[in-house]
Amino acid sequence: MAVSIALAVSNRLQPVAVALLCLMAVQLVMASCTPEPVPYATRVMIQR
Description:
This protein is mainly α. The protein is built from 1 helix and no strands.
C-alpha cells in the first residue's frame, strides 16, 4: 500500500519536477549570456 501511495504522489509531482528543471536550465543559460550593451543617453539641447 505504501508503494502505491508513493507512486501516485510521484506521478503527480513529475510535471512539477520537469517544470522546475526547465526553469533552472533557462536560468543557467541566461546567466551564461553576456548582457547587451546599453547605449548611453545623449544630451539634447533644448531651444528656447
